[in-house]
# Entry
Amino acid sequence: MKEYESLSWYAARIKPHLPKEAFKPVPSRLLGGLAFLIVIVAGFLAIGFLELNVWFNLLIAIVLGACYASLGFLGHEILHGTVVRKPWLRDLLGAITFWPLCTGPSLWRKWHNMNHHVHTQDEHKDPDAWISAEQLAQKPFVRLLYRVPLFIRASFSLLSLAMTFTAHSLRMFTIYIKDFNPRNRPKVWLQFILPWASWIGVLLWIGFANWFFVFLLPLLIANFIVMAYISTNHRLNPLVPVNDPLANSLSVTVPKWVDAIHFNFSYHTEHHLFPSISPKYYPLVKAHIKQNWPERYHEMPFLKAMIALFKTPRIYYQHKELVDPRAGNVYGSLGNGLDPDDISYQNNLQVFPSEGKPSNHPKV
Ligand SMILES: [Zn+2]
Ligand SMILES: [Zn+2]
# Structure
């Protein structure tokens, strides 16, 4: 085997072992979405009409946030076309499920399906990949942020997960809107404006206090849940020259009931290998991967992945390593020396020559 193999190389070896049904859409996944919608409507009615005390409202807001996140995971699945095949219905259901996260289906398919999936962990083309030391060197303002000690940066990053999805989604809109055919742009704008307009309408209708509990706080909670997964998907893996899902992705493990309410989103390597089959079949795909390439497959408990993220810096150095530019410490990535049970680093690397530390690595 080569150092990296392509998506199609792996897929061709597993596909013959999967049942035919695995390649058909699974509309019954919508029943889960319907259950979350019913809980959301009940939460709205309770907060809007029952004048509950603040603790009950807080509890309901947490449940609403969890429901918005789950709908987002279902939306991700729907917009890959694994639930219904008709494009208009796929986009309509995708728009509804992504409504709380204020992300339109056309933007999501462009950003996620056509760019993140096609160019996963490509330094320049993956819109979700973390930047490299070379890219950081071109951004003097961002470099200033990296003068803050790693512990403080990591704590801030952890807290900011509560808004990163929304912030990144807004950024993706500004980046990709110009790439849409001018004929389609009004539709993409409408998909962007309508969710925000509706939530502002709700604010004017029910007042800030209730709006805080039905939208703002649940949005922060949903952001945190969704981003906690997304941050484990690839950020411990190296940047790669070939889209090799075993090298560039991590699957996390969570309790079965969590997989049930999050539509198997934890199976991320499996998802990159077969984005167009229902996540319902990912446990089967996982079994085949582990049977064929156990030494290449990356998997760890969700909490362990979060701790590893907290303890490692988020700047890539020479594709396979992670560097803390402030301290000059260099950490491995998954498959390249990173041991999540015992995180260690080499120190005294001068990443930015102008900042005056001795260099024992080539200059960036
Ligand atoms: Zn991914
Ligand atoms: Zn996907």
Remarks:
- The CA atoms of residues 161 and 224 lie 5 Å apart.
- Residues 7-304 form one domain.
